[in-house]
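Final report, Chapter 2: Outcomes

The project's central promise was a pipeline that accepts a single protein chain and returns its three-dimensional structure in a standardized token representation, suitable for archiving and comparison. That pipeline is now operational. To close this chapter, we reproduce one record exactly as it appears in the project archive, with the input sequence first and the structure output second.
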Amino acid sequence: MTIARVSKISPLDPTAAEPFYRQIYSRFRGAIASGVLKPGDRIPSARALTKELGLARGTIEAAYSLLAAEGYIQARGQAGTIVRPDLKPQTPLPAPIPQSRSGIDAVSFRPDTILPFQMGLPALDVFPRKIWARLSARCARAMQPSDMVHPSVRGLPELRAQIAAYLQVSRGISCSPSQIFVTSGYRHSIALIAQSLLKAGDRVWLENPGYPPTREILGHMNIATVAVPVDQDGMIVSDGMKLVPRARAAVITPAHQSPLSVSLSLPRRLALLDWAARNNAWIIEDDYDGEYRYVSRPLPALKSLDRDGRVLYSGTFSKVLFPSLRLAYLVVPEAQAERFEQITEALASGSPELTQAIVTAFMTEGHFARHIQRMRKLYAERRRATEAGLESVLGKHMRIDSQPGGMHLILRPPGRRSDRRLVAQMREAGLYAEALTDWATGDDRASALLVGFTNIDSQRSAETLGKRILKLI
């Protein structure tokens, strides 16, 4: 049950001919009719509203009496006054969703839905919620006044220590907690890097195709992006050197290229590091799902090869735990830690400390490492099952790329069929996909569907969903 806030009710007009009690009555009735106040919502007590609006108690009670007499609200004694639970307010028609000039909806790269084939979602059905709930309750009970002040802008020290230990063991990164900054997500990490090390007019290499929000974030900061092609060995570093040899930075996904899922080869890793060292440039390593490789052990991070302090490593809890945590982390070169702290102090407010404490406990007690191990095995199984299920239904109509890791599959329709139009049709049918052409720039963009498999629980489920896609082809 929620409590209505006075800010949801439009302000009273002292110059109006209508008395105050009628204005209050009209505003509550309008809020209920429009759905701002819903059945069962608790409204402020007469005493509280009297104090808030500075009116006589009788004025408020007159308005409430009228609302009650007409069946809008109901007194529940000590439980307060609520909007009648059996009330069926008129639901306003939703505003039409604007469409692009091509008639196809704009793509969201951070959807708040749970749809079949949705990208970027871990297996929510098997997350250890009971363990998480127990740790959450324990951390909440243990809160002291010192835990309730402003959080550290760097992040909870205990969490940074756990992240440093985890990265040392799992990703081969040698770093200290002082090099780690806890952020609210990848976008925050990229913005923090740009604010700390880049300036308007700088040029930055981006993979093509590559994660679109990176291009968008840097564009808003007046930083020019340079599309560098990707092949089966990852970003073609030599092409980047030909296009803009003196670029200020490169953003790269070396473990599983986003979205093609290929891995950056060792010769190109070394070439990229050499380029950065010679040109005093920065490499931003986005390791969004490096834990999930199925043909061998996860590859060491590019950061583990960095000997000149040119790589900034971006990790996230969204893919290994769940996105609504809004927690990620950034490992910066030791020489840059002070600079990042200065920028963070000026521009950031820190992440919720209670959330950080729960994640710290989850890692300290070993649940984090065990969860990743379980998910790696589960995702390998779900990947095989989803690929087999879709192949059995769509094999004559689409080619499915075989990839060494990641959390999604690539379906390639024949010919020049528009992937964006097919994605729009799938969205209308309650299915999720993303169009590869939305991830690329330039005229020669390949057409393909990107579909997540982490929440597809069996081959039979994949076959059923594949039949729904088949109807749209």
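Archive annotation: The two ends are 45 Å apart (CA to CA).
This record, like all others produced under the grant, will remain available to the consortium after the project formally closes.
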